[in-house]
Amino acid sequence: MSAIDDFLSRNEGYASGYDKGDLATPPSRQIAVVVCMDARLETGRLLGLLEGEAHVIRNAGGIVTDDVIRSLTISQRLLGTREVMVVQHTKCGMLSFQGEELADAIEKETGQRPGFSFESFSELEPSVRTAVAKIQASPFVLHREAVRGFIYDVETGRLREVD
User: What integer is the mean pLDDT of 31-37?
Assistant: First the structure.
C-alpha cells in the first residue's frame, strides 16, 4: 500500500469521529507559527496546539521567504493574528548543504537554474535572528512587535528562545 493510500485509510477513521466542523476560520489564539517542514517536528504536539488555535506555516528550514510574508500578511490583516513564533531546529537538513552548490548541480542536470534561493544556512541562531528580523522589517505585517524566535532541540523536545 502506498503512503497516500494508507493516509486515506487513516482519514476514514479520523473523519468518522470528526466534530470540529464549526471551528471559526481565524485562529483562536491569534498566533501564526513559522516552522520547518521536518517530519520530526509535530507542531501541534510540541506546542500543545489544538485544531483552530494557530496558523502553522511550514517550509524547508522555517525560512522567512516572500511566500511566508504573504501568508503572515493574510493571517494578520484578514484573520486577526497578532503574534508570530519562528521555530527552527537542531540537526536541520538545511545545515547540511550549500544552496549555490545545489542550484549549480540542478542547473547542470536540467539545463535550468532554479528561480528561487534554497536559503541554506550554516548556523541556527543567526538564521533564527534573520527570520525574525525579516518579519519585523516587513511593512505588510501589522504586528511586528510580537515576533519571537526559537530553536527546537530534536533530541530533547525542548524549545529555546533566541534573543
Answer: 98
